Amino acid sequence: MRHVFRALVFAAFMVAFSSCYTYRVATHAQSGTGVKKVTAHSYFWGLAQQKDIPTPNCDTLGIYGMSEVRVRNNIGYALITIVTLGIYSPVQLEYKCGKPCPKTSEL
């Protein structure tokens, strides 16, 4: 009974003090759009993954490049990865498109 109590306390401690982690890549470009979110999926420990993530709003609006990209993981995604033993691993991507360069004069 004592081992079960310790295991429950340890599990509660891990859940209470766990948090998501975030990686942010930023450029010197000015943000032209709001934050867009997409979930990327990786299968079989990264052997099969989504190679290209489409960004139609950055490409079709005539906006050049991205001004910021964030990669986020949270406790739910971490638990999914653990339960599936790494066979399935989701991650959330957030990005902002950059503004086009301003026109200074006409040719």
TrEMBL record:
Keywords: Signal. Residues 1-22 form the signal peptide. It comes from the Bacteria. This is Bor protein. It comes from Chitinophaga japonensis (Flexibacter japonensis).
